[in-house]
Amino acid sequence: MEKTITKSGDYVEIHLTKLIYEGTLLESPESEKGIVLLKLDSGYNIGFNRKDILKIVPLKKIKEEKENKLEIKKDNDKKNIALIITGGTIASRLDPKTGGVYPLQKPEDFFKFYPELFEKVNVVKVEIPFMKFSENMDYKDWQKLARITSEFLNDSNIHGVIITHGTDFLHYTSAALSFFIQNLNKPVVLTYSQRSIDRASSDANLNLQCSALAAISDIAEVMIVGHGTNNDDFCYAMRGTKVRKLHSSRRDAFKVVNDKPFAKIYLDRIERISEWKIRNKNKSKTDTKFEENIALIKFYPGQNPDILDYYVKKGYKGIVLELSGLGHVATGGSRNSWLKKLKEIQAKGIIICATSQCIFGRVDPLVYSAGREILETGVIYLEDMLAETAFVKLGWVLGHDDWKKNKKIVKEKMLENVSGEINKRIEE
Questions:
Q1: Could you report the per-residue pLDDT of 25-43, keeping only the tens digit for each?
Q2: Beta-carbon contacts of residue 93 (< 8 Å; ≥ 6 apart)
Q3: Is residue 89 among the annotated active site residues?
Q4: Domains 80-286 and 294-414 in one fold
Q5: Which ranges of 348-406 would DSSP assign to H, the alpha helix?
Q6: Active site (annotated) includes residue 401
Q7: CA-CA 20 to 30 A from 378: which of 34, 94, 323, 360?
Q8: Which CATH number does the domain 11-60 belong to among 3.60.21.10, 3.40.50.720, 2.30.30.520, 3.40.50.10580?
Q9: Are 237 and 265 in contact (CB under 8 A)?
Q10: Second-level CATH architecture of 80-286
Q11: Is the Cα dihedral 146, 150, 153, 155 positive or negative?
Q12: Is 167 a catalytic residue?
């Protein structure tokens, strides 16, 4: 290989015998010094044997970043919003040495990458309660977010709130805020990025700009705003309790389930699709009670019901079961019938709720005899509620001491349509 002066972070061409690759040069691990790593413009990393490379041609040298103070000017013709930054890809950038992403450290870093946000709104309050990828969050983080968000909602100077968040468990957080924040008076917009801002295909800017329009709209709902298609044409505003991440990497990963989006949001307008609660003069308040000893279990063929004894032993208070399409587990025709065990553990005080493993549709225990047998054990069937939403809602309901003492009240609360989580008429 011809000798060239390059370092990790440089944008280069790698010349092989017949092919040329372009991308960002990465730092090779200590154990693989014979390998040259390159991040392609697609975002994927590729490795080359050093002996197979004819030459590396630097196209753009990495620049050492200078610490510049960011000056943000307020425009009196624009409406004010609050921004809560929690981590995830949208608040991360490429580490040129490792090829991975690392979290931005301060608001100035965030604003430097997303200046278009200020073309639509004034960001007058910024809060960074924590910087976490969403798989590291739990109900205490949801509680903290609800309290901060509610304070912003009751600030007369703030028109709406945007929360940036990691994608993988975003719909758990949106469901939690939908239950935790009562008397909602203004928009609460959660948004994300599947691809970090230093990638040409990043979805972050469109998601943020559409979120800004949602935050100053009259949609007084907890919603997720993100790409409506894999192109940069518009975003959907989606109810926080009826949305799920349905693709691991596409930019339009989030889809509404058993419902319609609130709206299509373009860079210059909002087009209504369905009804929403209107901005109002309520005083927002929080109800963040939560019982953490709950579980979400997916039933599979042949599964031994004795698994439920573990949760009894560990003192769990409630379980959401993901059952078959209409809501079945193994019954009389199986070596591992669940009927006896379901009766046993409910007699010991554990609340059992049923959702469907299917993404679309609802559970219905009255279609087949197996469903009726399960229903007779006391299992609460949750109609078309998403399993993740049901998990969050069950924790919230059982967090109230005056509710959890009475199973009848728990059932009433779980089947009460608190924040659009149940849809009597399923939309395709």
A1: 887 766 667 888 888 887 6
A2: 101, 102, 104, 109, 113, 196, 197, 198
A3: yes
A4: yes
A5: 369-376, 387-398, 401-404
A6: no
A7: 360
A8: 2.30.30.520
A9: yes
A10: 3-Layer(aba) Sandwich (3.40)
A11: negative
A12: yes
